[in-house]
Amino acid sequence: MASNEPLDLDEVYAFASQLGKDAGKILDDGWRRRAQGGGQAEHVEKESAVDIVTQTDEDVEAFVKTKISKRFPSHHFIGEETYSKGSSKDYLIGDEPTWCVDPLDGTVNYIHIFPMFCVSIAFILNGEPVIGIINTPFMNHTFSACRGRGAWLNETQQLPLVRNPIPPLPETAPKGCVFACEWGKDRRDLADGNLQRKVESFVNMAAEIGGRDGKGGMVHGVRSLGSATLDLAYCAMGAVDIWWEGGCWEWDVAAGICLLKEAGGLVTTANPPEDPATARIDDAKLGGRLYLAIRPAGDSTRETGRQSQERTVREVWRRVRHLDYARPGA
Amino acid sequence: MASNEPLDLDEVYAFASQLGKDAGKILDDGWRRRAQGGGQAEHVEKESAVDIVTQTDEDVEAFVKTKISKRFPSHHFIGEETYSKGSSKDYLIGDEPTWCVDPLDGTVNYIHIFPMFCVSIAFILNGEPVIGIINTPFMNHTFSACRGRGAWLNETQQLPLVRNPIPPLPETAPKGCVFACEWGKDRRDLADGNLQRKVESFVNMAAEIGGRDGKGGMVHGVRSLGSATLDLAYCAMGAVDIWWEGGCWEWDVAAGICLLKEAGGLVTTANPPEDPATARIDDAKLGGRLYLAIRPAGDSTRETGRQSQERTVREVWRRVRHLDYARPGA
Question: A140 to chain B: which residues are within 8 Å by CB?
C-alpha cells in the first residue's frame, strides 16, 4: 500500500485482529514449551530483577513487525523491545499511521506462567489510537476495538459487559468501586519515593471512610494484576471502576486506551492538579506516563455518565500523591 | 449411601468434578443475565460495604447442598452462606465425611464481573481435604485434585505447570518470587490494626534488597486477585510462589489447600513464630484463619524442594507482621 493511498480502517482492523490472534498463539506455544521442557524461561537481566525480557518477547515483536511491514510498508512501527533497547525513550508518535506494539505485556507474569499476560497491538492515526487489539492466550480472551465500531470481548460481547443500561458510578465513589493499581518496578526505599507515594495512595483508597484524615476511600476491592494493558481492558469491561498508575510507556497503554474510550471510559492524568475540585479534566497524553482511567458510566437521574466519571476523578485526585515519572531527558 | 458403607474416593471425585462444573454454570448464567438485564446485582449489605452477598451465591449453595445430600445423605455439609448466617463461627469440621463449600469465592469480583470468581468445593475426611474442585466460569478453568491422584488444570494439564523438572524456589527468595496477597475487608484505620500490619508486610516484601532496615524482599511481582481460592490454585500451578493471608475461613481455602498439597506445595501459618529461623514448620490448621502457602518446588543440587520451601517460609516470616484474626469466642 502506498503511503498516499486512502486507509480502509475496516481492512486494518481485520488485519490487526488476526495479527493479535497469531501473536497470542506464539505466546501460548512459548509457555507450553517451557512447561514441557522444565525450568524457568531463559532470561537476561535488563535494568533490575523485575525487568526481564524473554526470547519469546523478542520473537513476537519480530513476527508482528514483519507482518505489518509486509502488509503496510509505509506505516511506522514502535515496539517495546526495539524501542527500549535504543539509547533514548523520546516520544516518537506523530500524525502518520503508526503501529504501537507491546509483544508481551505482563512479562513478569509470563515468566511465572501467571495467567495475566497478553499481546497488545494499537494502530494510531494523527496521534490517536484508533484500533486496539489485546489477546490473552492463557485465558483465551480477545479484546478488540476500532474507532466508531465499539469495544468487544471475543468479538461477540460488547463492552462494557453490563450495558442495558450502563450503570453510573456509585454516588459514594470511590466507595463501592474496584480499584486497580500496580506496585511496579521502582522499589527504591526512599523517604518520599514513588513506592512510598504509591503505597500511601493505595492505603488512602482502601481505608475506611473517615480514616486517613478524611482521605479514606473504602474502595470495594484493591486489585493488582501485573499488566497495565489488562487493567485497562478490565476497565473497559466495567470490571475495574478505577485504574491509577504511573510509569507506563505508550506501548503499555495504547491498545487499552483505544478499547476503554470506545467503550465509553475516561482517561486523564494520574497526578492530582493544584485544585482537584475545579481543575479541567483533560485527556491523558499517550506518552505522558501517568494515567487515571475510569470505567464507562451511564446517566442517572442526577447526573450524566460523564459527570459521574469526572466526580470520581476528583475524588481519586483528592486521595492520591503526585508520582515522579518523566521521559528520560524531559 | 449408608454412613457405614466404604467410601469410593474415585466415585466421590467424579461426582464433585461434575458438581463444580454445574455450579460454575449457574454462576456463569448469573453474570450473563445481569449483563443483559443491566444494573448492578441486587445485593444486601452484611457486615460492611465490602461484604456483599448475592442471590446467586445462595442459589449455588442450595443447589450444591441438595445435590450432595441426595447422593451422600450421611455426609456433613458446611457452606459459606448457611454457616455465616448462623450466630457463631465455631470450627465444626470433625473426622466424619464433610463437604466444605464456598458457592462463590470472590464475591466482590462477581458483583463487578471481574473475572476472578469461582465455586470452591472440598471433600474432607478425618479433618483433611482429600478432594478439591475449583471452577472459574469466566475463564473456563477447572482445577481439580484428589488425594494420591495429583492436581490438574482442565483435567489434562498436571500441576504445577512446569514439572520436567519442577523448578526449586529461587536461591534469593523472596527475590524472584511472585507474591500474592489481599487487602481484605478489615479497613479500619487503627495505628497497629490488621490493615496497617498487612501493608507494612506487603511493603517489606516489595522493597529493594537492603531497604526497610534489611527487610526488603524485592519480590518479582505483587499480585492481588480478590480470591483466596484462586490465590491457592495459582500457587498450585506454580504461578504464585508465595501467598500470605489472614482472615479467611475454611470454605475459602479447603479446596485450594487440597489442590496445593497434591501439587507438592506447602501451607503453614501466616503469623511468624518467635524465632522464624529455627521454629518448626507445621501444616496450617484448616480453621486457623492464617495461611502462608509456598508453591511446589523441585530439588536442586544444594537442597531438596522441601528445604527450599522451608527456607522461603522463614524468609517470609522474617518480613511479615503478626495478624490479629481469631475465631469468634476463641
Answer: 139-140
